[in-house]
Amino acid sequence: KQEVTQIPAALSVPEGENLVLNCSFTDSAIYNLQWFRQDPGKGLTSLLLIQSSQREQTSGRLNASLDKSSGRSTLYIAASQPGDSATYLCAVRPVRPPETSGSRLTFGEGTQLTVNP
Amino acid sequence: DTAVSQTPKYLVTQMGNDKSIKCEQNLGHDTMYWYKQDSKKFLKIMFSYNNKELIINETVPNRFSPKSPDKAHLNLHINSLELGDSAVYFCASSQFAGGIGETQYFGPGTRLLVL
Questions:
Q1: Interface contact B98-A101, CB threshold 8 A
Q2: Measured between CB atoms, which of B97, B105, B109 is closest to A100?
Q3: Contact A110/A7 with Cβ under 8 angstroms?
Q4: Of A57, B31, B67, B91, which shows the fewest CB atoms inside 10 Å?
Q5: For residue range B23-32, what is the model confidence (pLDDT) as tens digits?
Q6: Does the pLDDT of residue A1 top 90, yes or no?
């Protein structure tokens, strides 16, 4: 059974710092990995999706890496801003033939990030 | 324009009642999902429909019954509500059920409180 762990559970940094959020998963047989952002009282917003064949994806100040063999992904946030304060969730999709089986994402518990001005 | 919308946003009800939550997506996606986020903020998939057909049905009490009248809508009906059903329920959609690199788009959530 796939388990996803995110460390740290909470992180507080001053504005402008570069930071790394960690995600690990127990079963390396994944199809893709997604990073989401959840603001308090709101839904999830997809930030980056990395396919199993990729090593990293970048979007603006965000960079996500994937090391499938070791079961790890990191989300790097450059020059953090107060607006980055949110809970960051990673989720993995298992490889499960046939592909019509649906996208059964397994989520980590999230890292709650606070960026202080 | 709201991509994935849910109603109601908040739902407070008594134990034993029956309630429904509605979800609609205007993205033209084929697949829709229901997730439950518990008090510890842990998200877990409950159901998924692809073109109105149920394709994922996790271990969920049969008091929960999803219904998809068309591929743009996925509703969740809950019978005989229990205290433990209190959670935030998220609807999501993706373009494909399978395929390479599908991204899931989430609704704002329905906060259910059972008293």
A1: yes
A2: B97
A3: no
A4: B67
A5: 999 999 888 9
A6: no
**Mean pLDDT throughout A68-76?**
95
Decide: A35 and A44 in contact? Cβ < 8 Å.
no
Question: Once rounded to an integer, what is the mean pLDDT over residues B70-94?
Answer: 94
Smallest CA–CA distance, residue A109 to chain B, in Å, is 5
- Among all chains, which residue has been given the structure tokens 């935030």? B88
Interchain proximity A99–B97, CB inside 8 Å: yes
- Extract the tokens encoding B42: 């842990």
How many CA atoms lie within 13 Å of B90's alpha carbon, on the beta-carbon side?
Answer: 22
Instruction: Report whether pLDDT(A89) > 90.
Output: yes
Mean pLDDT of A19-44: 91
Tokens 């009800």, residue? B13
- Kindly determine whether residue A102 and residue B31, on different chains, have CB atoms separated by under 8 Å: yes
Sort out which chain B residues have CB atoms less than 8 A from A87's CB and list them.
41
